[in-house]
Design brief:
The protein is α/β, with parallel strands linked by helices and about 550 residues long. Helices cover about 40% and strands about 15% of the residues. The longest helix has 17 residues, at about 185-200. It is globular and about 65 Å long. The chain starts with a helix and ends with a helix. The structure holds the ligand Cc1ncc(Cc2c([C@H](C)O)sc(CCOP(=O)(O)OP(=O)(O)O)c2C)c(N)n1 and magnesium ion (MG). The ligand Cc1ncc(Cc2c([C@H](C)O)sc(CCOP(=O)(O)OP(=O)(O)O)c2C)c(N)n1 binds near residues 401, 429, 452 and 454.
């Protein structure tokens, strides 16, 4: 077996199911082995940001590793933002990059694609990955690969593997997975004692489930734990979509001033807030109506637990949840009453113009009739609108908040899960990576794309209305769909929107782009609440 085959088998053994990539001359040798070995399917896309977002999406929706394969320099540097998003949002993406061979590295010449030094790329990726290796020694490679892939899964963060192009066919032994790290059982027991003790004395305990619950495959267990503890469950903005198909007392999504008042009140008045797998970020917590004293919360994330001023290190989330389940038998006698929020439905299919909340109604009506679809959302008002759509699997960069994620992530979702996705994207974000839809035909993907066209960087305009640079003008996105291999339609009334969705759900085998014209300045209910709330608390 050669070095790349050994790497590919290891990736598959650690949970990778496909590779997204764009080659280059430094990468052609390893791409050739990927294609010829057929160990993992290879999907090439058109721009490396899309490669990174698609790989990230597969890890988020399926669990296991996402894999993004690029060439040295221009390719890898083009993907830095997408890998940074994966790092910030705890997504286990493996970055494979071709690299200069040992011989050429000592040629004394500056190499094409080289930035500062030949190691600049490795240095830059050290900032957005939790482990790295350059495979320049075939004898050491199996152990290095095992270490890096174990880091990726243990931390649920990206890692970087550089493959010198003269190493790809070096004979290489198979990779043996690293043994799981030992856990101090006494410390784990003490930690669980303290958590249960805090929850027991709390009068209004609440469990907030964060993205690590999905990343470590714990949704069913956390739903079971919440029932046993009799805790109401909320998700954060980033955690939206978690626990959708689990039997959990899920009250809703906490969004502070932008969210549903009863959910906001439940969380902000809690005297026992248990943050499980949560990213403690501004998008999750900065818009609190009443400041949450995080020191009074129980925080379990990043492999450690913090209660007030106590910190327990090396507490993997899975081990913590398992230990709590082992200690808490049977469901609580007091089941938390869950008043299921009634999402907006019953779109009036008339000649009125379309507001984002009308889109949510139309989608909820579609889900009621045809079943729910998983959602890949970009950022912008489309993501705020997603909060008004029925709970369903949702992947979106709710914390890192990069544009361009939506379309490639939807393609990655369909490639890895086989499910048809609903993609929500604004016109500004579509201008960045929407063209990846041109790859659907080759691979048989057929997402339904709802393009929120307000001809504006509208989120920015809400904060700085005086700036003219937020005007984008109208692009004819619908007309471009046919050239990309799909069907496109522009809709400006609610009746047209309903008809377009009915046609889209009935059409398979071609992507369906619905360009929704939204009048200038018309926001979703959620974004309007967010903007008003931010303005209110910033003047306090
Ligand atoms: C890659 C990238 N570039 C720039 C931004 C800044 C930014 C926003 C965040 C605040 O940083 S929101 C926004 C406008 C989005 O426009 P569109 O996709 O049309 O959505 P909508 O009209 O609903 O706002 C920009 C440019 C970003 N988040 N990501
Ligand atoms: Mg816009």
């Amino acid at each position: 077996m050669n070095l790349v085959e050994s790497l590919l088998h290891a990736l598959k053994d650690h949970g990778a199911r496909e590779i997204f990539g764009i080659p280059g001359d430094f990468a052609l040798p390893y791409f050739r082995i990927i294609e010829e070995s057929e160990i993992l399917p290879l999907y090439t896309l058109s721009h490396e940001p899309g490669v990174g977002f698609a790989a990230d999406a597969t890890a988020r929706i399926r669990g296991g590793l996402g894999v993004a394969a690029v060439t040295y320099g221009a390719g890898a540097f083009n993907m830095v933002n997408a890998v940074a998003a994966a790092y910030a949002e705890k997504s286990p993406v493996v970055v494979l990059s071709g690299g200069p061979g040992k011989g050429e590295a000592s040629s004394g010449l500056l190499l094409h694609h080289q930035a500062k030094t030949l190691d600049s790329q490795l240095q830059i990726f050290k900032e957005i990955t939790c482990d790295q290796v350059k495979l320049d020694d075939a004898a050491r490679a199996p152990a290095d690969i095992a270490r890096v892939l174990a880091s990726c899964l243990r931390n649920s963060e990206p890692v970087y593997i550089e493959i010198p192009r003269d190493m790809v066919r070096e004979p290489c032994a198979p990779v043996v997975r690293e043994a799981p790290r030992a856990i101090d059982r006494d410390a784990l027991a003490a930690c669980v004692d303290e958590i249960l003790g805090r929850l027991d004395v709390a009068k209004r305990p609440v469990l907030m489930a964060g993205v690590e619950v999905r990343r470590f495959g714990l949704e069913e267990k956390v739903a079971d734990l919440s029932r046993r503890l009799g805790l109401p469950v909320v998700t954060s903005f980033m955690g939206r979509g978690l626990l959708t198909d689990c039997d959990a007392p899920l009250v809703g999504t906490y969004m502070g001033v932008a969210g549903l008042p009863d959910v906001t009140q439940l969380v902000e008045s809690s005297d026992g807030l248990f943050l499980l797998g949560e990213i403690i970020s501004d998008t999750n917590f900065a818009v609190s109506e009443t400041r949450i004293d995080l020191r009074q919360t129980i925080q379990a994330h990043n492999g450690q637990v913090t209660l007030g001023y106590h910190m327990y290190a090396n507490m993997p989330l899975a081990a913590l949840v398992d230990e709590m389940l082992a200690r808490v038998k049977g469901n609580a006698d007091k089941a938390f009453p869950v008043a299921h929020y009634q999402y907006p439905k019953g779109l009036v299919a008339d000649g009125e113009t379309i507001a984002p909340t009308d889109i949510a109604k139309a989608v909820n009506d579609l889900f009621a009739e045809h079943g729910r679809l998983p959602i890949a959302s970009d950022i912008g008002d489309c993501l705020f609108t997603a909060m008004e759509i029925e709970q369903t699997a949702l992947i979106a960069p709710g914390y890192y908040a990069t544009m361009g994620f939506g379309v490639p992530a939807g393609l990655g979702l369909q490639a890895t899960s086989g499910q048809r996705p609903l993609i929500l994207v604004g016109d500004g974000a579509f201008q960045m990576t929407g063209w990846e839809l041109g790859n659907c035909k080759r691979y048989g993907w057929d997402p339904i794309v709802l393009l929120f066209n307000n001809a504006s960087w509208e989120m920015l305009r809400t904060f700085q209305p005086e700036s003219g640079f937020n005007d984008l003008g109208h692009w004819g996105f619908a007309e471009m769909a046919a050239g990309l291999g799909g069907d496109g339609v522009r809709v400006s009334t609610r009746a047209e929107l309903k008809a377009a969705l009915d046609k889209a759900i009935a059409t398979r085998g071609r992507f369906q782009l619905i360009e929704v014209t939204i009048p200038r300045g018309v926001l979703s209910t959620t974004l309007a609440r967010f903007v008003a709330g931010v303005k209110r608390i910033s003047t306090k």
